[in-house]
Amino acid sequence: MITYDEIFENNRQWVESSTATNADFLKHLASDQKPDYLYIGCSDSRVTAEELMGVAPGEVFVHRNVANLVINIDLNATSVIEYAVAHLGVKHIVVCGHYGCGGVKAAMQPKDLGVMNPWLRNIRDVYRLHQPELDKIEDTTARYDRLVELNVQEQCVNVIKMAVVQQQYLKNGYPTVHGWVFDLKTGLLKDLNLDFEHILHDIQEIYNLGDQVLFGEGKTTPAIEIGQAAKTDIQR
Question: Which end of the chain is more exposed for a tag (fewer CB within 10 A), N or C?
Answer without folding.
Answer: N
